[in-house]
Amino acid sequence: MKKQIILILAILLIFTGLNFSKKRKVDSIKFPKLKEFNIPVIQKASTNNGIKIRLIKSDKLPLINIVAIIKGGSIYDPETKISLADMTAQLLRIGGTANMNGEEVDAFLDSNGITIRISASFEYFTIYMSCMDENLEKGLEILSKILMKPGFDKNKLEEIKTQFTSSVQRRNDTPQPILTREFNKILYGENTPFSSVLEYEHIENIKINDIKKEHKMFFAPENLLMGISGPVKINDVKILVEKYFGDWKNTAHIPPYPRVKRVRNDFKIALANKDSLNQNYISIGHIGTKEDKKLQPVIKVFNSIFSQGMDSRLFNKVRTELGLTYGVGGGIFQNKLYKGKTYFSTFTKSESTIPVIKAIFGEIERIKKKKVSEKELSDAKNYFLNSYVFKFSTPEKILYSKLSDEFYGNDENEQKELLKNIAKVTADDVFKLVQTHLKLEKMKVVIIGNEKLIKGNLSELGKIKKLDISIKPPAVKEIIPDATPETLKKGSMIIKNLYKNKYKGFKKIKSFKMTYDMTMSVRGQQMTMGMDTTKVYPDKNFTEISVMGMKFTRIVNGKKGVMNQMGQKIPITEKQIKDEQFGSEYDMYHNMKNYKFQFLKEIKIEGITYDVIYISNADKKWKKLYINKKSGFIEITESLSTQAPMIGVIKSISSDFKIIKGVPFSFKSKTIFKKKVVRSAKIKTIKINIKVDNKLFILK
Amino acid sequence: MKKVLIIVLMLLLISGVTYTKDFDFSKIKDRVSEFTLENGLKFILLEDHSVPIASFVTYVNVGGVDEKIGDWGIAHFLEHMAFKGTSEIGTKNWKKEKKNFAKMDLIFSQILAEDNKQTPDKAKIKELNKKLALLKKEAAKYVVANEFDTILKRNGGVGLNAGTGADSTTYYFSLPSNKLELWAYLESARYLDPAFREFYKERDVITEERRMRVENQPIGKLIEEVLGIAYKVHPYKNNVIGPMSNIHHFSRASLKRFFNANYTGENMVIGVTGDVTPKQLKKLAKKYFSKIRKGTKNPWHYTFEPKQAGEKRITIYDDSQPFILLAYHCPEGNHPDFIKFELLNYILTSGRSSRLNKKMVIKNKSALAVFSMGGFPGTKYPNLYLMLSLPNKDIKSKKLIKSMLNEIDDLKENLISEKELNSAKVRMKLNAVRGLGSNRGLLVELLSSEVLTGSWENTFNDISKIDKITAKDIKELAKKYLTVNNRIIARIEKKIKKKEVKKEENKKGEKK
């Protein structure tokens, strides 16, 4: 059976000409009516266990293409196991089957010219298969084994994890993905399915059993919608699918859709600095709404006029008129099942960041103040009506659009209805839309680029938040048990006792001056530096470092600090200073309320018994202290280093304690990273509560 | 690229284990027709009447390779200007606009004259730029922005775009087939009557494009450097977008000169595919395209790259994780060895059972991804065979380079098995058949065959060549081209502190 396209198109060719004094050639060309044509019909079948098959016959080439979709995807990833869907998809493909290992599957596919790809996107898994028509049965057979009885090879999971780990490490190499990621985090809030970011710890968290569960939860026949195109008959396909997938039992259990939560941000602009760039990447927008069928036609028309295509208002303004970008786009986007985004994106040389943002804001203001012109309206509408025929340009296109409609439960006539309604959109409709859906005051601006090169004062646009895009180091593998009132009480007690005994001098200490030698080990080479530190509590520190006949100074004064190094001044950030103070004996004593002290365990190492206390603060910073029960000294600490090249857990071991005026100093200490001593220190001289000239700490 | 089809055709004819059916290529060939206008402009039509749509490709035989040093980037600049309308499209008042152009160009020529001095008078340039800015403002008054695009869009046009490569410049879009005459008018008008409008603004757009593609993409930077060192004298040295300084120095007159020399009947081929008959096309082609000047086809270059005397290496330190690129000089697309490089891709990097994937990605997990390709930056002249890889976290680039070189050595020392060879051929076949599914893809193949080999029909010839590729051929190929002296090893490394770079340099110095 064949259906004929309804030619609404011809009725709707309302073209409002430009007012030119003489008629131009381009306006005088007469076009014949668009020819009527047959749209290939999609045939349907289902297997007994519920696999839906949709087929479009196409005899042009001896080639079969299968695209199957399975509800699931990264939207369902658990918060601590981001990429579970992705890893599952990949492991299915490469992890072998019950009776073939991964390499055997690869070799079979490659030597038979069968391509199979399995991937996870946000809302579904996609399975793609392509082969010569005569290999269809071979292809379906192996595909059924892959989907129904996967091998779940642990070694292959390691291969995938290695790849994912590398991709985390590479995620800041180019600006565009950083922008997308950070923009989503700001619009949807952090750690939501709509803004999730893969971290090393998620990769660690995912185990083979998680993959098995994920597979069971989604990969099931009644959750499978299979589209086929090629020179085959629906009955032949049905018989084959029944033959190889017929035994598949339904196990699917699809969780409810997560909701988008309200987010409040008190800033207008978020900026991540990347020095290596000379072009800044910008997104401007706010959270949008769920799909509203009545608004869809108006949105399509608005997007076409305002921000899509090479003659939209934004394109005409920012690229053509101002010459400030190569590309600009965006629009109002609604999703079927969750709130979409309203946003506009572009990139420009770092210097012109502010003019570009202002130009986009200006265009938003303009379209909110004045209705779009009749010409703009008819141009946009005619575009949709006249280009409608391209939806049928290939059988695959027809099939895929059908699959998508079916997946989202769209009506059969949805596309045609949409087109009819586009024809009815008025300038008033667009005007109403922009009043309710474009909210300047709600819009956030996210910039990834070179902050120093920006000309002008960015803060005139609103409050700025600096984004930290650094990659979170892998988490500690040891799992810290949840704190209980008992363990917290015991922890606090042990710490308080410290300050009653060996550490009591911290009540009174005002300052000290100390000289010591520090030896660093870098790639098997050692380098010793002479250190001269003057410290005035609580927050001043001056250190002179002598190495190979050169002298550097490092000064910290309050929240600011600077490192002077061969004529270069490197600022020390507030965060660095805070990190250094965290867990120091002085800070713990004087700011005890900022800490949680959790008693973990008693442990014996080389004959010495330690109390292990896990200290943490509201920022989730942590440190483990090993207190020698007998001597009462903190002899070992473990903490997380985030400074390259040491990213991970570092361990410090202190020994040779001497108590000076009630304050214990370890005369020998070493720092261990990945089982290697990376640093060791020896105190040479020390004086406590000396007089210090405060000029020493002037940041210069 | 262009050879892919040949391979397909060929493979389809092999009575292999996996494919035994005959595929009737005469069916495809029968859909192709051609004619040439008196001005030398050739049209190639690939018919398909199943849906009332048509796609159009104009293939101009000019690219980065045809530019002299001072002109680097001009072919691409010109491509941008082809969207800027005509004396009729995109203007509110062409007469006034033209006068304004003349004024602007005069000022700009004064700026250039001053700027080209050894010690330019900067104050004078500033003054002139102010004048130019005023005129630019006036110019904007006459412009109907992007009207070329608007006209196409409202008529249902989709896929309007263009591309400039080392070998060619192509322009394309699609329309419902009842709008064939609109295509004929617009496409001919932009070559017969180009306005070169908004020249001084588009220049800035192109600088943004360069920043995006090259300066803010670590890989973009690396590729530019590789071309720069791989070639000493051949114009493939030129990165198509051109250096920033050139983009700023082109004048409207220089663009016009370049346009007049290259956009001629003899130097262009036009392809149409879709619901169009030869009769319809011929009629409109004559009516609209006959006035394009005959001109001449761009000649073959006489400057060829001399044999590389030794290995070349380059390392870029950037704010990016490592990236490795090996490049080997390989012959032009028409050379019988070129097709063997295409097959080599399937042996080395395409598919999970390919050699580099198996060893580096799967077995020792040292690479995140591997990739290879021939025909870079073009196929018209001898070019580069590229092998790329991304080291996994904590894997040293040196280790990865060594693995890649080991694989190459293995190719030179040992014959690949028949099984492996056939597997590679099968995969190549499948990919290429997929390519046949796209009318426009096939049309572009036909056009490039026409220009680069003299006839589109060559796309369907030479079929037996691939059949004859043997394991021994691959070994010989590796021995002949994949040599130390013939290669460039390029990489990106994560930027480290200045001190450490110095240290490493010192170390290298000591070794010497």
Comma- or semicolon-separated keywords:
A: 700 residues, alpha+beta, Cytochrome Bc1 Complex, Chain A, domain 1, outer membrane lipoprotein receptor (LolB), chain A, 3 domains, 27 strands, B: alpha+beta, 2 domains, 20 helices, 48% helix, disordered N terminus, disordered C terminus
How would you describe the shape of chain A?
A: globular
Q: Would you identify the CATH architecture of the largest domain in chain B?
A: 2-Layer Sandwich
Counted by DSSP, the helix tally of chain A is: 20
The major pleated sheet of chain B works out as: 6 strands, mixed
> Tell me, what's the shape of chain B?
globular
- Please give the CATH architecture of the largest domain in chain A: Clam
Q: How much helical structure, as a percent, in the residues of chain A?
A: 25-40%
* N-to-C span of chain A: 85 Å
Structural class designation of chain A: alpha+beta
Work out the radius of gyration of chain B: 25 Å
Question: Mean of the pLDDT scores of chain B?
Answer: 90
The total tally of domains of chain A equals: 3
Q: What kind of assembly state do the chains in view correspond to?
A: heterodimer
How many β-strand stretches of chain B? 11
Strand order of the largest sheet of chain B: 1-2-6-3-5-4
Which CATH first-tier class of the largest domain in chain B would you pick? Alpha Beta
Note the gap between the termini of chain B.
42 Å
User: Largest chain-chain contact?
Assistant: A-B, 84 and 82 residues
Low-confidence spans of chain A: 1-21
In terms of topology, how is this protein built?
The complex is a heterodimer of chains A (700) and B (512).
Chain A: E1 3-4, H1 8-11, H2 25-28, E2 38-39, E3 43-46, E4 52-57, E5 63-71, H3 84-94, H4 102-112, E6 115-120, E7 124-132, H5 136-148, H6 154-169, H7 175-188, H8 200-205, H9 208-218, E8 224-230, H10 234-245, E9 269-273, E10 279-287, H11 296-306, H12 313-321, E11 328-332, E12 341-349, H13 353-369, H14 374-387, H15 395-407, H16 414-424, H17 427-437, E13 444-449, E14 464-466, H18 485-500, E15 511-522, E16 525-536, E17 540-547, E18 550-557, E19 560-565, E20 568-572, H19 574-581, H20 585-590, E21 596-605, E22 608-616, E23 622-628, E24 634-641, E25 648-660, E26 663-673, E27 676-688
Parallel strand pairs in A: 4-8, 9-13, 9-14
Antiparallel strand pairs in A: 1-2, 3-4, 5-7, 5-8, 6-7, 10-12, 10-13, 11-12, 15-16, 15-27, 16-17, 17-18, 18-19, 19-20, 21-22, 22-23, 23-24, 24-25, 25-26, 26-27
Helix pairs in contact in A: 3-6, 3-9, 5-10, 11-14, 11-16, 11-17, 12-13
Chain B: H1 4-13, H2 26-30, E1 32-36, E2 42-47, E3 53-60, H3 74-81, H4 94-115, H5 122-142, H6 147-154, E4 158-164, E5 169-176, H7 180-192, H8 199-215, H9 218-230, H10 244-249, H11 252-262, E6 268-274, H12 278-289, E7 312-318, E8 323-330, H13 338-348, H14 355-363, E9 367-376, E10 383-391, H15 397-413, H16 418-436, H17 439-453, H18 464-467, H19 471-481, E11 487-494, H20 498-511
Parallel strand pairs in B: 2-6, 7-11
Antiparallel strand pairs in B: 1-2, 3-5, 3-6, 4-5, 8-10, 8-11, 9-10
